[in-house]
Write a structure and sequence with these properties.
The protein has helices at 2-18, 27-34, 38-58, 68-73, 83-89, 94-101, 109-125, 148-152, 161-177, and strands at 131-137, 156-160, 189-193. It is mostly helical. Bound molecules: zinc ion (ZN).
Length: 196
């Protein structure tokens, strides 16, 4: 239940910051949360709780992206000023936050080359295996697809076809239950298919 726990941990941090608890490296985002209007704050807490409730039913091996409305109210799309703090709040590994700060804002060619190697290994060396796709938390850009900490934190995982279908169902339920209007954020997971 690693992925669920990490979402619960984020919710806990937000509620603690609201009442003034200090966290190392989260100064600006703390202030932002403390100064949020009551309605807005309540709205994001309700959405986050709802998201956690849905994720609990599916128990995916990778954490879905945070609800886009919550991210939006936390100020993540209104500039990259908070990117480091946002990454910390999301529990992203330090190495990946550093790499993001060096202007690696998307899955790029280096990631795709790494994906090719993973694909080759899976298709050539291992014979029968159940790996269908490499799945990442949408919006999370790892320093490398091989970043160990990202794997151990449930931000990257190899999934079987069965798990993949479960993830797609979860995405659909999240979209239905928590509608939002961020066009580019209809997917909570980034998927790289592995089968040739
Ligand atoms: Zn990393």
């Amino acid at each position: 239940m690693r992925t669920l726990e990490s979402l619960e941990h984020i919710l806990e941090k937000i509620t603690c910051m609201r009442i003034g608890q200090k966290y190392e490296g989260l100064k600006n985002i703390s202030l932002h949360i403390q100064n949020m209007e009551y309605e807005k704050y309540n709205f994001i807490i309700l959405r986050l709780k709802k998201q956690i409730e849905i994720v609990k039913k599916y128990n995916p091996p990778v954490r879905p992206a945070m609800d886009p409305m919550v991210s939006s109210y936390l100020g993540i799309y209104s500039g990259l000023d908070f990117s480091e703090e946002y990454g910390l709040l999301m529990g992203y590994p330090k190495c990946c936050i550093e790499s993001f700060k060096s202007a690696r804002f998307a899955i790029d060619n280096n990631h795709l080359k790494e994906a090719e190697v993973i694909k080759e290994n899976i298709n050539n060396n291992l014979g029968e295996n159940n790996n269908y796709a490499l799945v990442l938390t949408s919006g999370f850009i790892p320093c490398s697809l091989k970043c160990r900490e990202s794997w151990s934190k449930g931000l990257i995982a190899l999934v079987s076809f069965k798990e993949y279908k479960n993830i797609v169902k979860l995405e659909r339920e999240l979209l239905n239950e928590l509608p939002h209007y961020h066009g580019g954020y209809n997917e909570y997971f980034e998927k790289i298919f592995l089968k040739k």
